[in-house]
Design goal:
Layout lengths: L16 H28 L7 H6 L17 H14 L1 H21 L2 H12 L5 E4 L15 E5 L2 E12 L6 E8 L2 E8 L5 E5 L11 E12 L11 H35 L1 E2 L2 E2 L4 H30 L4 H25 L11 H13 L4 H13 L6
Parallel strand pairs: 1-4
Antiparallel strand pairs: 2-3, 3-7, 4-5, 6-7, 8-9
This protein binds 3-thiaglutaryl-CoA and flavin-adenine dinucleotide.
Length: about 375
């Protein structure tokens, strides 16, 4: 149930008419089409691909990019959409973030005109699905130590290496592959049907089960120079894509927390114990007050990011603070909500344990809680803990 009262400071009243329309459209889609099927997909370990055409039709893929048949929506609209998607499941928001922020954005920002014209319209329409390969089996938080290599051979590049924990690897048509070269870090658009490219789904995940996560191997994969992103010239290029996606997560985590809070609030009001509703006990009222306060604080941080984004003054470290704070807040809300539902809290019939489990991945991916803490530490002290 979503009755609006979770938006305690009425922050959505600042949304433009277009942004409100976008929010309402996505909210309806999540409530009517996604939530009824997500538990089954979570249990089966699958993403509801049959909903993909509707996600594309709503214009959500690369929605904050301008031109090339992308929707050209505001950063705020993108954030609010991420919040509404993740109210359904982190896997749904992941799907949209990976396609838009991690696969379309690098082409949009670092690609040639030919690459943009070839790929972006087809990715916005959902014809082409992408995945983003930065993490390796032995190099996660420190992608600058990656061992995947690309070597020039005439007009081509030969790629060798492995990428692991990659959202949509196994179902993607193209991979954005980050590799080290004699000239520094470079990005490549690699069709997944290239000879020597092999992808597998990672089985037995206990988190983000309604999202495909995989690994891929590059064994002498040959790509022409025309598939290299010409403007990506350092590790800063993939990291800038992460800033885009982390912005969406700052909003998305608020959505997951809202779903858990609303489930706990409704349950506590409806369920009697000791002859009166659970919600009438002072202990539980304070828990609900703490949860709503956490959500409101997270929402305010996300909203402020939009203002900084709009003013062109948003720095990666601003995003680090909001991503770190909001995911931790959402985990705390989800765990409290889980306990407030008693035994029902561990059932897939309620959304809270699914969200709590998902949020463990969200805490880790796109920069772990510790890494974002150290990014903030560097900003505060002027001393990098990494070098
Ligand atoms: P450092 O020396 O700090 O920086 C190197 C260059 O990069 C620039 N830079 C950034 N630029 C834009 N946005 C950012 N967030 C940036 N962070 C750094 C920086 O200005 C510098 O540029 P220049 O021109 O001076 O050279 O780099 P470092 O090696 O010390 O590492 C910094 C660190 C640890 C913060 C970075 O490596 C990091 O962020 N690590 C975490 C790795 C990570 O987040 N991986 C995510 C993989 S993708 C994923 O998880 C997708 S999940 C998708 C889903 O399903 O939703
Ligand atoms: P490690 O870097 O080995 O870290 C292990 C622990 O050590 C963490 O707690 C970390 O915070 C801590 N640690 C590391 N360095 C330090 C330090 N200097 N000081 C203190 N503590 C430290 N990657 C992609 O490229 N593309 C994707 O699409 C993608 N999707 C993902 C989907 C899922 C479901 C998951 C779980 C991960 C995904 N990832 C993806 C990978 C993700 O970005 C990495 O897992 C993450 O960056 C952390 O790397 P790691 O798992 O190797 O952990």
């Amino acid at each position: 149930m979503s009755d609006g009262s979770t938006d305690f400071y009425d922050l959505d009243s600042r949304l433009s008419e277009d942004e409100q329309l976008m929010r309402d459209t996505v909210r309806r889609f999540v409530d009517d089409k996604f939530i009824p099927v997500v538990a089954d997909h979570f249990e089966a370990g699958t993403f509801p691909m049959d909903l993909f055409p509707q996600i594309a039709e709503m214009g959500l893929l690369g929605m904050h990019l301008h031109g090339y048949e992308c929707a050209g929506a505001s950063a705020t609209a993108y954030g609010v959409v991420c919040r509404e998607l993740e109210r359904g499941d982190s896997g749904l928001r992941s799907f949209v973030s990976v396609q838009g922020s991690l696969c379309m954005f690098p082409i949009w920002k670092y690609g040639s005109e030919e690459q943009k014209n070839e790929w972006l319209p087809r990715m916005a329409s959902g014809e082409v699905i992408g995945c983003f390969g930065l993490t390796e089996p032995d190099h996660g938080s420190d992608p600058g130590s990656m061992i995947t290599r690309a070597v020039r051979r005439g007009d081509d590049w030969v790629l060798n290496g492995a990428k692991r924990w990659i959202t949509n690897a196994g179902i993607a048509d193209i991979a954005i592959v980050w590799a080290n070269t004699d000239e520094g870090f470079r990005g490549f658009i690699v069709p997944t049907d290239s000879e020597g490219f092999e992808a597998h789904k990672i089985q037995n995940k206990l988190s983000l089960r309604a999202s495909v996560t995989g690994e891929f191997y590059l064994d002498d994969v040959v790509v022409p120079e025309s598939m290299r992103l010409p403007k990506a010239a350092s590790i800063g290029a993939p990291l800038s894509c992460l800033t885009e996606a982390r912005f969406g997560i700052a909003f998305g985590a608020v959505g997951a927390a809202i779903a858990c809070y609303e489930a706990a609030r409704d349950y506590q009001i409806e369920r009697p114990q000791f002859g009166k509703p659970l919600a009438s006990f002072q202990l539980n009222q304070v828990k609900l007050a703490d949860m709503l306060t956490g959500i409101t604080n997270g929402h305010l941080q996300a909203q402020r990011l939009c203002e900084l984004h709009g003013a062109g003054t948003m720095k990666p470290v601003h995003v680090s603070m909001a991503k770190r704070h909001n995911v931790r807040m959402a985990i705390d809300v989800a765990r409290t909500a889980r306990a407030m539902l008693g035994a029902n809290g561990i059932s897939l019939e309620y959304p809270v344990m699914r969200h709590a489990n998902n949020l463990e991945s969200v805490l880790t991916y796109e920069g772990t809680e510790e890494i974002h803490g150290l990014v903030l530490g560097k900003e505060i002290t002027g001393i990098s803990a990494f070098s």
